[in-house]
Amino acid sequence: MARERTVVKGIVLRSVDTKESDKILTVLTDAGKIPVTAKGARGRKSRVTACTQLLAYSELTLNESRGWQYLGEGATIELFDGVRRDIELLSLASYFAELTEAVAMEEGEYGGILSLLLNALYALGKLKKPQRLVKAAFELKLMALSGFEPLADGCAYCGRPEPESPALDVRNGVVCCQRCGKGGNGLTMPLTGGALAAMQRVLYGDPKRLYSFTLAEADLKRLGDASEAYVHTTLERGFKTLDFYKGLQEPACGFEK
Fold first, then answer.
1. Rounded-to-10 torsion of CA 26, 28, 31, 33
2. What is the pLDDT of residues 110-126, one digit of tens each?
3. How many C-beta atoms surround the C-beta of residue 211 within 10 A?
4. How far apart are CA 252 and CA 245, in angstroms?
5. For residue 7, what are the CA distances in angstroms to 12, 30, 59?
6. Which of 107, 130, 187, 255 measures 20 to 30 Å from 249, CA to CA?
7. Residue 14 — φ and ψ, nearest 5°?
């Protein structure tokens, strides 16, 4: 029986070595997450080595056999060399890939998430946007696109359009006045006015201008702490790639990224 052949564009979220020279890939396309076997990808004469790297965005020709997808051909579209040449950027990008894999399913509409990831890598490697700003914006927008969008247009408890001493209730996924949040069973992360405005811009603003803003140091720290806590609480898990990235930051404590 002839194999069914399909051509997709996707980015490698995970690449695992197997057998002598094969790889098992997890590829995100606009139609979902696909496990792909790349036979001989680690061989010296392989023509698909480049497109099987982590974070490689490529056009892939897949052959299906007995329910498994095998990589037949591949042509790279973008390798994000600016990210690969910097260990900190690469570790942060690897966290983005692990986080994306955690929320993506094998079938669904994932064009928005695919674009979000590609734009985040571009913002890091080409535009040289601050790492902490990109991280916080990516986390919040990814959660929103995955169906876990926090309500941030006012206090969810008292209805104030401008919450007094704003905070993010990470268990309930709502913004509230810090005083209102203390009355519930949530876990609140304090925000500043600037951090809340940035959160609203990320969640409700033009996605094409997701990283087109700046924040004062105090605002950026509050936004970053809240977005990370929201991810961990909502997904109920940690990420080894994030731990590695944060470990790289420790020797440079006090240095703004």
1. 30
2. 999 999 999 999 999 99
3. 19
4. 12
5. 15, 12, 7
6. 187
7. -155, 140
